[in-house]
Amino acid sequence: MTGLVIRLAPHERVLLNGAVIENGDRRASLSIKTPHANVLRLRDAIHPEQANTPVKRTCYLAQLVLSGDSKAEDVKTPLLRAIEQLSQVFTDMDSRDILSTASETAMDGDYYQTLKSLRLLLPRERRLLEARTQ
Length: 134
Fold this sequence. Notes:
Layout: E1 4-8, E2 13-16, E3 19-22, E4 28-32, E5 39-41, H1 54-67, H2 72-87, H3 93-107, H4 111-119, H5 122-133
Antiparallel strand pairs: 1-4, 2-3, 2-5
Helix pairs in contact: 1-2, 1-4, 2-3, 3-4
């Protein structure tokens, strides 16, 4: 079993199954062996008031499961609907692949990988929104 490896900067915090863990003075790696453990880097966390775009709102849904604020069964359907809606906007092949991965990992209950995939769309969304306002 391989697991998930997280590299932490000094004093970086991570949420692991509801517990906040803070790294010490040196860089460190955590090897998480438990499948489907809920892991969220706090530096990557989206606060509710920041979930103000379609991709950020979709990321936030996945994050709710990782933070323990929602149950997976309550989030799965709205999350899959949101991913489907994003696929109607992000039509290029690379984005489609990202959304396909996000959908598959959400179906498998791997919300860490779902969030990781969805975050790849944030710069694309930012560019689209900036182009719209110009």
